[in-house]
Amino acid sequence: MSATSKKLGFVEQIILLAFMISMVALAIDVMLPALFDISRDLQAENPNDRQYVIAAVFLGLAIGQLFYGPLSDSIGRKPAIYMGFGLFLIGCLLSIFAQNFTIMLVGRLLQGLGVASPRIVSLALIRDQYQGREMARFVSLVMTVFILVPVLAPALGQLILYFAEWRMIFVALFVLGLATLIWFGLRQEETLALEHRAPLSLKRIWRAVKEVVRTRAAFGFTMVGGFIFSAFLGYLTMSQQIFQDQYGVGDMFAVYFGVLALALGTASFVNARLVMRFGMRKLSYHALVALTVLSMLFMVYTYLWNGQPPLWALVSFFMVIFFCIGILFGNFNAMAMEPLGHIAGVAAAVIGSITTFVSMGLGTVIAQLYDGTVLPLVASFAVLGALSIAAMAWTVRTSQTVTGSG
């Protein structure tokens, strides 16, 4: 029996870690309905500037992951998570009292730096206890619970806006973050024994970076995850503009966003059931091919509609694509981490940081291409899907075949 299971049961741990990892999604999705109000009240210069309220969180996330993983290997998982939640709460306070757009972005950057800790250290905590397909199954179950957050978060933001101004959204974030921190502190035990801890040093971090980059499976699957998440990040940052500005759905935006998020959750649940039978690589390969082919076909369809396909067609496309992405999310993380269990914390940091930097850079470019049509977004799924297939083929070329059992 593990140290964790003495105090925290399997189901409760899944729910707790899902809530912790979901702080990233919560910090992003809960305020999507308020982006227009925030940019207007804080006098952002142009309509696409509202996207930076989302991008700033991902920038903080990318930077923070490099710090917290190695730190958790040195001082333990719990103290590193405490530090991250502290930064997140400070960032929430800055956003609550922001009087201009710059201060808002600083607050959002701190929130990103903060949520990097539960996001990345939780994966190392899981890797301390599980490996291989068992790890993929656990991550998928966590993602299944996690998906409730993006399903419900925009509706929560919209509900708050019915009764109060957008600043109360950050008050809600502060309260939820504090409650999750207390739950974690009281219930979760430390999973990294003292004898397994390593001194914190830049030299050790650099060695880990080189090991990740030189390990074909780790680097290859990390890049594939980055490419796929880039297109999804593009969707996240422009979703409010697409649904409310372009298609005029108004307050129904939260409903559309939630329904599409359910496709991700359903896929994560299905993946948890199938991964033990078919293996991570086989499932991932077929999901990636399906995503790419469908995106190419829908890109042609979108072009024929001058970038304005019917709403029902767009939502149907997104549902299938997000189902494929739900299959891919947990598997690529698990496959990248699999050969690096001996440096789990710092490896999770490097893998998470590379994935986020890649997706943030490409995703921001995709979002800034928004021109009142969905053609740039649909094209990004097609192009990055094809690039991901090529990267996956390169990754497995000298080891197992794509349809192997790994």
From TrEMBL:
| Keyword list, A-Z | Cell inner membrane, Cell membrane, Membrane, Transmembrane, Transmembrane helix, Transport
Q: Which residues cross the membrane?
A: 14-36, 51-68, 80-99, 138-162, 168-186, 217-238, 253-271, 283-305, 311-332, 344-367, 373-396
Chain ranges of the Major facilitator superfamily (MFS) profile domain: 13-403
The record's section on Gene3D superfamilies has:
Multidrug resistance protein D (1.20.1720.10)
The cross-references to Pfam families, in alphabetical order and at most eight, read: MFS_1
What does the UniProt entry say about where the protein is found? Answer: Cell inner membrane; Cell membrane
Chief location category: membrane
Tell me what topology the record assigns in the membrane: Multi-pass membrane protein
Xref: PROSITE patterns: MFS
- What's this protein's family per the entry? Belongs to the major facilitator superfamily. Bcr/CmlA family.
Q: What is this protein called?
A: Bcr/CflA family efflux transporter
Q: Which organism is it from?
A: Sneathiella sedimenti
